[in-house]
Design a protein that fits this description.
152 residues, mainly alpha, YdcZ, transmembrane helix, 79% helix
Length: 152
Amino acid sequence: MQVMVLIFGMLAFLGGMLVAAQGPIYARLAEGLGRNYLLAVFLAFATAALVTGIIALVTGSFRGLSASTLGGLPIWVWLGGMFGAIHVVISMQSIPVLGVTLFLVIVVTGNLVGAALYDHVGAMGLTERPFSLTKAFGLALVVLGVGMVARA
């Protein structure tokens, strides 16, 4: 169990490093396209869709896909891709102004506040995990950290 926690912890860390690279990459892509943010997002997501589609095809991931499976999903599951696209547009415009570090500190703060809210209400099928004073204190420290990074 501890080995799995370490492996997935390292993968999560790597994922975080890759997310930190996305913003500057997307910002440069948009700049190269005359600051056409929507075209940049389309091209980035088309590339991602193509690559993941090929991998899914090769690994057989499409075998279990059916119209009834797709029709049985709640409509809100399709918002994830749209939210990702919105985030990418925001990153392209914000990173040149804020820098990667401040942008990501603010994003992580938003992630944590959203997560606490989603946990509290059991949103999107999650198990309800009530908000507590300890969580509030931790989030307050995160917001304090944003202020420290912004002043640095």
